[in-house]
Amino acid sequence: MAFLHSLDIVGSALTAERYRSDVILQNISNARTTRTPGGGPYNRKQVVFEEKPFRQGTFGETFRHVCKIRHNHQIHTGGVKVQTMVDSINVFKPVYDPEHPDADADGYVWYPNVDTTEEIIDLMGATNAYEANLTAMSVVKAMISKSLDIAK
To answer: Best label site of 27, 37, 108, 129, fewest CB within 10 Å?
Structure first.
């Protein structure tokens, strides 16, 4: 059943979007962190996705690859995965507060480069993508169920 590979693709998207949501929530929770263990303010993190390509080629190559998958019980399908997590290149925000314990010699406190409005919008996008993939998974599950009903 070729459409069963759709579950792998949707599952990879759900995993990637969940990871993206976790990183966004980490950014929001550290939006006012002026001192990290590494020194300096918290730096916004961003997730980079990468395509997990589906093996394509001539019909014979694809057929041999599918036979190898079935023989070795390995699945090599398309989808998405988290390639890496990178630090934002945006500058930190200086705020004049000489009484703050993290103020520099000039009295400025450097706050993280996290814009909570931007993070909330990113979180809404990740949530919408997650929900869309849940809907796709429901459709695939319904197709599987109907296929099994036909086989009765």
So the answer is: 37
